[in-house]
Give the backbone structure.
Amino acid sequence: MGSYIARRLIALVPILIGVTMVAFLVSRGLPGDPARLYAGMQASEGEVQAIRVSLGLDKPLYHQYWIYMQGLIQGDLGFSLRTGFPVAEDIRNRLPATVEMVIFALAFALSVALPLGVWAAVRRGKLVDRFSRFISTLGVAIPDFWAALILVMIFFVFLGWAPAPVGRLDLGASPPDGTGFYLLDSVVRGEWGTFTNALGHIILPMISLGFPAIAPITRLTRNATLSVLQSDYIAFGRASGLRGAPLYLKYVLRNSLPGAITMTGLISGYMIGGAVLIERVFSWPGVGLYAYNSLERTDHAAIQGVVLLSAVTYLLVFLVVDLLQSIVDPRVRLK
Amino acid sequence: MTTTATKRKWDRRLVVGLIMFGAMICVAVFAPWIARNDPLAIDFATQFLAPSADHWFGTGRLGFDIFARVVYAARYDLVISMSAVLMSIVIGHPIGLVVGYLGGRVDSLTMRALDVIQSFPAFILAVGVLAALGEGVFNLILVIGFVGIPTFVRLVRAEVRSLREHSYVEAGRAVGNSRTRIMVRYIAPGTVGTVVTQAAISCGWAILLTAALGFIGLGVPLPDPEWGAMIAEGVEEMVVGGRWWISVFPGIAIAITIFSLSLIGESIADLVEPTRRKSR
Amino acid sequence: MSAILELRGLEVEIEGLPILRGVDLEVRPGEILGVVGETGAGKSMTARAILDLLPAAATVSFEECTFGGTDFIPPRARQLARGHQIGFVPQRPRGSLNPVFRVGKQIVDTLRRLRGMARTQAREEALNLLRSVRITDPERVYRSYPHELSGGMCQRVCIAIALAGEPELIIADEPTTGLDVTIQAEILKLLGEVIAEHNAAGMLITHDLGVVADVCDRVAVMYAGRVINLGTTVEIYREALHPYANQLVSIAGSLDSGGTPQEIPGRVPNPGDELVACAFAPRCFRAEDDCYGEEPPLVHIGGQMAFCHHPLTSEAVSV
């Protein structure tokens, strides 16, 4: 197991280097003058030249990459012109909001999609199966940010059940101290009012971000379950007296899990992107809203910082997926 | 008996999908005849009108007629997404063909490069590149097309690797055809089915991406209409003023278009790959 | 001697196609009944019908089905028998064990489910079961995943699982499929021994008559969804009444003595094919007009019974 983790980590290194190269090229190598972009349109030619030198843009490209990497290793993503803080610090402060939302969205999507997928496979060709396929096709077609707005329309504008889609807490409510994960912090501190407040605010973002993930996870779970149901070991299990709930929960779901985990990894990459859109709708103060605001003000260091970090996060998610995979499926470790 | 029943059902999906998508194309082509109002006419006298007989989908902040804009936006969204997919295919297909057929070092290097590109969530990569390039229809096509390349490379490569071993390809080699000729005449035709299927699916995905980029202000610059940007215009109006119509109608247009494309994609996939039907 | 399992008139249809067309057989206490026939004769379907494991599209009917005196016609009774009264040994043993659980856990789970044992007790019993199927290092196998074991080893584990519920009957469905020839013999010998040791009866489904000769007490020969000849192994080998059984035996015999592989001319009918009164008539060297026109009668001679107009004996008595 240990050697498996080590091998996976080593395999990650060249990809990480490639990712930094792409991120570097996107921020420096594209047409246009990065120093001019960095300085802003109002800056004088002298200021632009000064920035050019300070960024090392007068040096050859490979040298620039070297400087960029040295900065990266020290956690330097540059300064945000908009906030005036280091980009790394800005992102660190906003990360818990995004992670909290993504985790809730994943949990929501999985809790709907896994049972639905298994059910659709068991009742193959019946009403549930067709219904789940219809939902799948529909789910792919509806943009998540639009679905978010529709939810706001129904539950805030018309029904008034949901709180205003502005931030993680009601206006004026003070966030709990701690990790920045409001739901966790409020539970740890026993601030139940804050907890219900935060919970009320996270429900619609959670559904909006999780909703597009339901379709692919359901479909994959269904197909994985079907092949499990037709397998020899299920036939033997049934012949040996395995029936009902234990058969489905212990055997079928358990054997469908590897596929579902892979899909969840893919989906979480999608959610990193989707967070930008959903946070925009709900003014959710996370990394996505940060990226959106940076886009509005063409704050390049901030944008490229988010781009790079998304890729690194995605790679880490896949590492975790592989490790989980090797836990739930002993055959993986052999490869 | 049951097989004919399922066949008929799949054909129906294809027909419905084609009719819906064809209707969207018609809307785009005949936009000036369908929408009576000018999509770019700014008129503060008609600001924020709810849907009515004059303005079927209501009006927005600048008095734009939303129906006209939804209709004209079909031109932008369809042209952008279809050109982008075309670009992905034109670049991705030959790469997949060559690396899949040759294998070896070229293949593994290309695959590592794709791994790197696909380490970025597609939407985020598009945002990053577009932010550096600047907005505009041409850049949008370029970026969405670029992000879609890896899908086609992988797809074609996988197909080629299985076709390469077929006996008719062996036979082609045995009679002394050149490598290029084998690839173009013997292998490439076999990849058409999967590529067409993926093209339909990718096209829906490209519309989604176009709209998402438009939604965060990286799309077609105002005042030209684009569905995603139109949804964005309505966010604050919906939350603060309860004016739901600004965002709702462009979203429905997106959903209809993508829904029709996935119907087409799924039914073609079933036609191309009959074995898939059995596993359902 | 009353039978432990008795089947009369078992019929199975799948999507309107007759698969089994009236199967009659019984398994007596302590014996191993071999069920032989070519692929498609309905051997596995018979076993699956007994355990109510047929696909959902199948319709099943019995004239009679009893197990140890209890009525087995209600599907519920047959479902509840799985693992408890009837143990099952599968084909393709490697694929039949769940790949994500260790072997030990799979046996322990079965014991807890079938015999309600506590965890520690089940662990002891699991190791005992592994020893009883002649596994020399039960501790290692207990800790292994199925993919770490050979096919033969996996089949031993499957047999251990089949024994876990202390069944009165063990049904083995082509248990040696996919195993090496040397291992096949070991597994069959093992199966015969454990059935005897556990005072159970056995039903061994196979297309290999050589296998039957080694372990079975009696043989049921199936053709096109029916048992067409049933008798002791010796009877079937020496003087099978039915021409089909007779030919099967002589082909198996010539193979064993190194002769060239022969086969019965014609082909096995597929479900849904138009059948004449005696399904075997088109391939039978003794067939006459009555074979095409009238249902073959049931003939009893000695311990044997057969459905045939022209059995291979002069003293046949029609009943």
